[in-house]
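So, can you check this record?

>
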Amino acid sequence: MARYTGPVCKLCRREGQKLFLKATKCYTEKCPIERRNFPPGQHGQAQARRRKMSGYALRLREKQKVKRMYGLHEKQFRNLFGQAAQQSGVTGENLLVGLETRLDNIIFRLGFAGSRAQARQLVRHRHVLVNGRIVDVPSYELAPGDEIAVAPGSKDLAVIQGSLESRTRAEPVDWLVVDDKNRVGRMVRRPARQDIPLAVQEQLIVELYSK
């Protein structure tokens, strides 16, 4: 399946905020959105001065923002929304919990990778163990009690070492515990909405897909 391989900083500029799609640049003052906080393209500045967006545009932009943060395709994202809608509880919160409990996101949250894209590559290259077994599926859903570890032969990888030592770590969350020295983490409970540090309005996504 094709994946976006263009300049990711353009995606941040399109959504009007940092999406933290790069391992290092998004954490520095050199991030392009700090210098050009308007959509990319020759009409970008004109778009920024346009009248207020319609309700549909607001909902679409919120969906695109979350989808790009987690690096999912439209079909993957919509399938995850369908699963969230079938669960009990608030659909928007279920969607965010489903996104947060993906293996690639948890590798990012534990600090073993500087971005979700980097975490996805670690998983794909079989550098990650879940409960002692190699898992190479980034979308693998974790449950409370699951142990996530870097494979023994991969603990000294420069990308992991650099992420743990630098400013490129994700915000710590209290539903995960991590042992940096041994490169081991554990999911102690499922996250609630207040545990997910994302400035998004998930209800807008629910409204978009409910039309």
Remarks:
- The mean pLDDT is 83.
- Residues 109 and 170 are 5 Å apart (CA to CA).
- The chain is about 40% helix and 10% strand.
